[in-house]
Amino acid sequence: MNSGLPPKSLMVQKVLEDKGLSSKVRIMPDSCRTSQMAADAVGCDVAQIAKSLIFKAKQSGEAVLIIACGDNMVDTKKVAKLLGQKLSRADADFVREQTGFAIGGVPPVGHPKPLTIFIDEDLERFEEIWAAAGNPHAVFPLTPQELFRITGGQVGDIKQTAKPK
Description:
Number of strands: 8
Structural class: alpha/beta
Helix content: 25-40%
Shape: globular
Radius of gyration: 15 Å
Strand content: 15-25%
Largest sheet: 8 strands, mixed
């Protein structure tokens, strides 16, 4: 294990290993806080970034993790229908409290408690995708199938489609 990793990224690396992945967390010189920044740093298409977005379920108050294709907007109405309750945006304090990570570095795994997870099916079109690893400069590669397996998330059509003009 790379002891040169920041503590949160080191924790993510351990979770990946515990889940049987050979992926290695990589620290990038430039920030990977947004999907475009991560794609630029890694040298991949922005769509290959598995962005982690946290929302708050309105009735239960629980955190909901949505892992979306980097170039897609999430249709919260589609997710709300799957979840059975409406969603609201989560602020930075809620994200950190529920996931243990700051916005811009929330990984798909390694949270202090299990989260309800929905995954954008558009990620399936790639052989390799990249996800945040606990720090705005940290990412790791994996396959969509590995993402589905390690998160146990529900895969489906959650992207926002363009409205006809």
